[in-house]
Amino acid sequence: MIREIAPRVFIETKFHGANVGFIVTGEGVVLIDTPMLPRDARRWQEEIRSRTDQEILYIINTDHHRGHIIGNQYFPTATVMAHEFAWKNMRSYGDSFRTRLFNLYRNRIPEAVEEWKANLRIIEPEITFTDRTILFKGDKEIHMIPIGGHTKATTVIYMPTEKLLFAGDAVVTDRPPFLSQGDTKQWLQALTYLRKLNYDVLIPGHGELTGKEATEQMSEFLRMVRRKVRSAYRAGLSKADTARSLKHLIHFWPIPAFEKPKADRRFKSSLNRVWNEIRAEEVAKERAKKARSRARKTGRVRAAKQ
User: Tens digits of per-residue pLDDT, 3-44?
Assistant: First the structure.
């Protein structure tokens, strides 16, 4: 159900794909992500028209994943804005992307697949950024802050006057987070940063409205996964064995019914990604240790010669 969570700032958390929002600025409308399914995108258009006659000027995509960007095409007056890395990914979405999408939804939402087959277009960002960028429109001040972690493109939308944070998939509350393109060390740093911002309401990428406590839950989970994967790696477990031994960690989160068919597979992919990350960290530590040992030996030899 659509809600006005601050003056002229609206959100919807029940669409399939990801949470979305729109901001009526006085000079035009700014969308935060777009509904994934055609039927939801049309309903979102109607909701916006019922509340304002202002033109839709911009779409801000919080990352490049399908749940956030497929609906861009249903808002033709809008200029899409996103991180540069999102643009690099979206411009590569071709036949393989479409085939995966169609196969995933063919049995679940066949009417969406039929419509996508007829007219699916990926609308890429026309404006990109790599650092904090502020959009001033009307009486609204909208900060786009790249934080990474979930993906290299992940961006949060901060509205300091309204004390709101659209966290994208940096924070989710109703399902296991998707780690397969993530950097968990950077993600933890990003969550620490988000706790320092001044806001009262956090809109997660998936799930209901929350506050800063949701960043703590995310941090707790990421630290736990990193700790357990590191222990498995140090014990000599392979990537596959690590994923099998830690698959129970998925139950830290609720799993929506529609996510269950693919939840285990996605979580295995997430654990594989973290295993690679931990391996890289451990190898770097070992190299640094050997370098320090060589430096000490070299220093002792030089001292002896003197």
Answer: 999 999 999 999 999 999 999 999 999 999 999 999 999 999
* Rounded distance between C-alpha atoms, residue 164 and residue 168, angstroms: 12
Q: Are 164 and 283 members of one domain?
A: no
Mean pLDDT to the nearest integer, 100-122: 95
Claim to verify: residue 197 and residue 242 sit in the same structural domain? no
The answer to whether residue 303 is domain-embedded is no
Which residue range forms the structural domain that includes residue 261?
A: 223-295
> Do residue 234 and residue 160 come from a single domain?
no
pLDDT score, position 262 = 84
Is there a single domain that holds both residue 178 and residue 43?
A: yes
**pLDDT tens sequence across 213-272:** 999 999 999 999 999 999 999 999 999 999 999 999 999 999 888 788 788 899 999 999
Tokens coding 46: 């109607």
Whether 218 is covered by a domain: the verdict is no
Is residue 216 one of the residues assigned to a domain?
no
**Summary mean pLDDT of the chain:** 95
Whole-model pTM: value is 0.93
Report how far residue 129's alpha carbon sits from residue 87's, in angstroms, rounded to the nearest whole number.
10
CATH number for 35? 3.60.15.10
Residues in contact with 256: Cβ distance below 8 Å, sequence separation at least 6, in sequence order = 174, 175
Residue type, 263: A
54 domain residue, yes or no: yes
Report how many domains make up the chain: 2
